Amino acid sequence: MDNPRPTTVGALKASGYQSRPVKDELRANLIRKLRSGETLFPGIQGYEDTVVPQLVNAVLARHDFILLGLRGQAKTRILRALVELLDEEIPVLAGSEINDDPLAPVSKYGRQLVEEMGDEAPVAWVHRENRYVEKLATPDVTIADMIGDVDPIKAARGGHILGDELTIHYGLLPRANRGIFAINELPDLAGKIQVGLFNILQEGDVQVKGYPIRLSLDVFMTFTANPEDYTARGKIITPLKDRIGSEIRTHYPEEVETGVGITAQESWVDRGDVPVEVPDFVAETIERVAFLAREDKRIDQRSGVSQRMPITVLESVVSAAEQRAIRLEEDTAVPRVGDLYLALPAITGKMELEYEGELQGADRIARELISAAAGDTFFHRAGGADLEDIVAHFEEGAALQVADDASADACLKGFGSVPGLLEVVESTGLAGNGASAGKRAAACELVLEALVAGRRISRNDGGRYGRARHEGKGGAGGMKFGGFEG
Question: In terms of domains, do 20 and 64 share one?
């Protein structure tokens, strides 16, 4: 049976416990994880060879650090994952507001408790989850919020003079003592508040309300910032930036496959009511929408295109398929490429447009991105397929209407009227033998959308495919995609 945890200072000393600074604690636990081969940041994908090694270096060097990157790059998730590098529990003096070390208290309350009770002073244990304090920086944050202030009510109730340390109402930073303190969107913090962080970063202490009270805090400081904020809303003052040990740049997924994995991990797809089958090529098309948006000159790349875009698009597409399955009483909800057009609100709301983009409109740009993404996906998976029979069918004046609420069987019946379409789907492996009707229908739509992307056939907003329209530029704003020149 495990020995019970010490509940007094005397028992803690007898157990052989030795306290250590939080940065040493993080460093030691990181080294242990490195030696055992454990995953350092579960749930963080795409940073294995870029961001993670820099994080490891910062922690090993005992550096406070800032994560600098655009929105939707998992900055906050990384900070919260640092909690796993803390010890599971640590002892504190019972009743201490700032997690006083029982063997070396820094607050007046802690010092008095040990002086009065000696080895009988009570000890409590704090779980690592309660040693992480996070604050979103906003212009209205005050120094009292961050550091603390004198509490007249506490002074009156305790009979203390206002200059007594026992009258302090501690702010977030002291309450993070012996733990991790994270500030999100640092540039939004007023300059005079940033100045208040100088001492804790360099000398490791804070002062409250001008009184000569020195709190030697033990805090691991972490920050996040968006480069756009440096000019849009504020900036990190130079002396504070100089005191932050490491600046680590984050980034969007560099490979489509990585983005697909992140989106699958973060999106709510398994609804429970109706089974959902998301074809892999639909998931890839959704991801490619985000990748193309991050390269489109009509979209403000300083703001970035968050990874939340493909996540919300996938959820919206699944919802469209779910609604269709419920209405038609189908056994499985299978999203189709055409469902991406029903998810336009999840795309347009995630884009900040440049002047040219504003002239064209977010809706048009989103539609062009979907078409281009479908073309890239098809080219990536089946670029050598012979599509001439399909093109010739539409060039001869044929048309095909694909309704959003049409069943998979009805779609397949219509697609079967297009010479060679089902054969291409099967021969390229987009939906081989044994594939569900829903997946086969989705694959047929991918082929047609790829032809639209290459301007070999046309598609109107209502889902009607027909002869190519060659007048005007059309396409995807002059982009090159999927082996087709747009």
Answer: yes
